[in-house]
Specification:
It is a single chain. This protein has 453 residues and is an alpha/beta fold. The protein has four domains: 19-126, no CATH class; 139-158 and 275-394, Nucleotidyltransferase, domain 5, CATH 3.30.420; 163-257, no CATH class; 420-452, no CATH class. Helices cover 52% and strands 9% of the residues. It has 16 helices and six strands. Strands 1, 2, 3, 4, 5 and 6 form a six-stranded mixed beta sheet that branches.
Length: 453
């Protein structure tokens, strides 16, 4: 069913004070709430409610506000809802007129909303932050034509993959699924598998690698026995039972067949989409997740594009897709693009591409200055990982990787907008006495003061 009506009856509001009487109108969140065009989400997301029956959905502004706040302040689904109840500015930002004492939604509803709006819906959140920056002058149109692009790895929330752990997890999941569907097993290894995994860790600690390999091979044998036993038992089972075992058995066979030099390895039982990516880092040679391409304005480092790139493509092959997304979200086609040396060979019609260390063609002060600022995107990615939620993606599946990347970018832009409004307010208060004095004396305001005002 469509979103519920946010209007309040006069009888309910007779003895309650409105939020505008409780908050500081100079607070950055209050200023930002007035600058965002919330009707965009109500108009675009209204098509997602196909059925006219059922319980009314939460208002789109509430969901958009919660997603903005969650990724601006690096909060979980539960934490952002809990803080919403405590924080009057959060409630005003999400469109509430009166202070609420109960959760606006169940935290699990954010999961269903993310799945409902999809990647296009979260891109709308990022696009609106770019529009606010354009309207307020935080980002100029000329800046949108000069972007810096780089890639990073968005790690998945998984444990470090080892063969022994994957074998033990496969045995546990298959035996549990067999018990749920009433499939009798010849042997479940409920006791032997955990003991073998424990001995693998002990032998690894003691540097007894030969014994460790022997116990790992034993775990692999256990998993193969359970897999073949289930294959035999479900041959004559109902189609529903066979369908329930299809994907787990596929993962088990994939795990049993992969070797040290295999490609597209299964690195996590619950997240089979995880890839191993090496970026040449000394402290972290291998990262387990998905590659993400990030595009920022060269001058302000404002994120104008962010997209997950599954299957670990070559950086140069991701550039066209990233610039296309940048043009769609910002409404301006990039003309200059600054990248690192990993994009060697990339060429986009109508776009000048400059790589770090390039000398040929960099013959003006502007180009030299902008190319020197290319490395600023590294700091942006660092903030998106430490201050945002890109360090570990906790959303499920490949869709979760795509949604988290865009939402993290939107949250980073919200932090930049809040910072810009706080700086503007401090500058205005600093110059206010001079402006008042100039007005009393009948003098014209200084142009820079008028711009701040």
């Amino acid at each position: 069913m469509g979103p519920r009506d946010e209007r309040h009856t006069p009888q309910d509001d007779l003895f309650r004070s409105e939020l505008v009487n409780l908050i500081d109108p100079r607070h950055p969140l209050v200023k930002l709430a007035d600058r965002i065009d919330w009707s965009v989400f109500e108009r675009e997301w209204s098509e997602l409610f196909a059925s006219p029956t059922g319980r009314p959905a939460a208002p789109p502004r509430l969901i958009a506000g919660l997603l903005y706040l969650q990724h601006a302040y690096n909060l979980s689904d539960e934490a952002v809802v809990e803080r919403w109840v405590e924080n009057v500015y959060y409630q005003h930002f999400c469109g509430e007129k009166y202070f609420q004492h109960e959760f606006p939604i169940d935290p699990s509803s954010l999961t269903r909303w993310r799945q409902r709006i999809g990647e296009e819906g979260v891109e709308l959140l990022l696009a609106e932050t770019v529009e606010v920056a354009k309207r307020d002058g935080v980002v100029k149109r000329q800046s949108l034509e000069r972007v810096t692009v780089d890639t990073t790895v968005q790690e998945k929330a998984i444990t470090y993959p080892t063969d022994a752990k994957l074998y033990a997890r496969g045995i546990r999941n298959l035996t549990k699924l067999a018990q749920q569907h009433g499939v009798p097993l010849r042997q479940s290894y409920a006791r032997k598998a955990p003991e073998a995994l424990l001995m693998v860790n002990r032998y690894a600690k003691a540097r007894q690698m030969k014994r460790k390999r022997r116990m790992t091979k034993r775990l692999k044998t256990y998993l193969g026995r359970v897999t073949r036993d289930i294959d035999r038992k479900i041959e004559d089972a109902p189609e529903a039972t066979q369908a329930a075992f299809q994907e787990p058995l596929h993962r088990a066979n994939r795990l049993l067949s992969q070797t040290r030099k295999s490609k597209n390895k299964l690195l996590s039982w619950h997240a089979p989409e995880v890839e191993v990516i090496g970026k040449g880092k000394v402290a972290k040679p291998w990262e387990f997740g998905v590659k993400v391409s990030v595009a920022v304005t060269n001058k302000e480092s404002f994120v104008v594009g962010c997209r997950s790139m599954p299957n670990n493509p070559f950086d140069g092959h991701t550039l066209a897709e990233t610039l296309e997304q940048t043009e769609i979200l910002s409404g301006v086609a990039p003309k200059r693009c600054y990248v690192d040396r990993g994009y060697k060979g990339a060429a986009i019609p109508g776009v000048q591409i400059f790589r770090s260390g390039q000398k040929r063609g960099v013959n003006t002060r502007t180009l030299k200055r902008e190319l020197k600022r290319r490395s600023a995107v590294e700091a942006v990615i660092g903030h998106m990982k430490t201050d945002g939620r890109m360090d570990r993606c906790r959303l499920k599946g490949a869709l979760g990787d795509a949604l988290n990347a865009v939402l993290v970018a939107a949250g980073h832009n919200i932090r930049l907008l809040l910072r810009a409004m706080a700086i503007l307010l401090r500058e205005l208060l600093r110059r206010l006495p001079a402006m008042i004095g100039a007005g009393i004396q009948g003098q014209d305001f200084d142009p820079s003061m008028r711009a701040v005002a």
